[in-house]
Amino acid sequence: MFVYKWILPSLSEVLAQSQPIVADCSPSKAEQQWRISLAATEHLLLQTLATTSPDTTQGLVLTAPAPLFSQPRLTQSLETVTFTAKPFNPRALMPFQMPHGVSITGINPEESVLPILHDDPLGSEQFCLVFTDKFTLVLVLAENHNGKKEFSFSFEPEVVHQAWRSLGARVILTNPEFFAKLDALVQKYDPIVPDYRIAVQFSHLLLQELTEPEVSVKQRGLGNLHPSHPKSGLTASSAPRPDVELLQAFAHEVRTPLTTIRTITRLLLKRRDLPANVINRLEVIDHECTEQIDRMELLFKAAELEASVSMRSSSTQLTATSVDQVLQQSIPRWQQAASRRNLTLDVVLPKQLPTVVSNPTMLDRVLTGLMENFTRSLPPGSHIQVQVIPAGDQLKLQLSPQPQCKDTCKTTTPITPPIRKALGQLLMFQPETGTISLNLAATKHLFQAIGGKLIVRQRSEYGEVLTIFLPLEVSNQQWR
Length: 480
Hints:
Shape: globular
Number of strands: 17
Helix content: 25-40%
């Protein structure tokens, strides 16, 4: 007979009953399996969700301890509820009195935060329940009775339904008025046996995300893909170096609380009874959180790429990417970053921009991260030119510092390159500004992962000139 640790079963206990055996591996491998499976789930959702209006809801995601998916298409198409054992206190960041009646739980079913009781063992678990009309899925990372972390997942409708019943009972205890709304959402996507092709697709995505699958897996599998399919477990055999593993852990630990803070901030911004000065402060918090979350995503991705050479070519899905759309999002942020450092930025674009082959979300992040580091390397008063021009079957994007007084000065003061010190194999430290950023090699690997190429040239009178090449989509090969 299975004995629960608490009055209600945790999600790891729910899966343990249906899967009494799980893969025996180290805690770091269990963490890696969790991250890889989340990435595969994100890709599966992107591939299976219909392309419709952003306002159309196509699924529900229940997560802990923070929201897990950052792709705009997913955040717009999926309703998200986050469970946390450490409820966020908005007063900790805002030196003002919140208006009477503002609540941080259950404000909107699209993006809600619900508490977990203090003694509940669920508070120490990381989990993700996905409900769509194509499939339902549960993923759990938790400590077992020996204190070791284990990862498990299941597509089985009954297992997913039991996991929801366990969570639903907790919602009744902590937020009964919200339970009916949430239960109605779950019933809308009643757990169904997925098409076998969904399970096969997920398996292929796992293989793409894995650094290198183990030759043999012990008798115990990771999860059930389908009641009629055998259990299967996948782990990575090549362990990352200590500093890479540390960077992954650091990026994850920083990103998680920032994501929670941003979620609560956006919930508060939906209130219509907040004073203007409160809204302004919340918008600043939202902007700062988003900027740092994107930075942590970049660091995490760089660590993933460095952990395995094979992952560099397979972990990022490339597709037709609108450069015009990416630049429309990026240029205002670049200009804002430049103005904060007393720099000016001039962007020279052709009348029409082509479609390239890349990853739009990663391209935006990598370019913004590159621009952030570039502006930090220049003295105040400098001018930057960003130029986009055709280069055969590629698109060339060049960042170059310009002389501050090229028309009136007889001589130009050379720009002295900033002092940079290496921190491990991925990071560099700039003592003058206290800035920590990705080094050149890691940045080049990121561009390679999104189908591009980065070239850095040093010009003594101007400083560094950065040139990015992106391959044109076939239909744009004759673009000029």
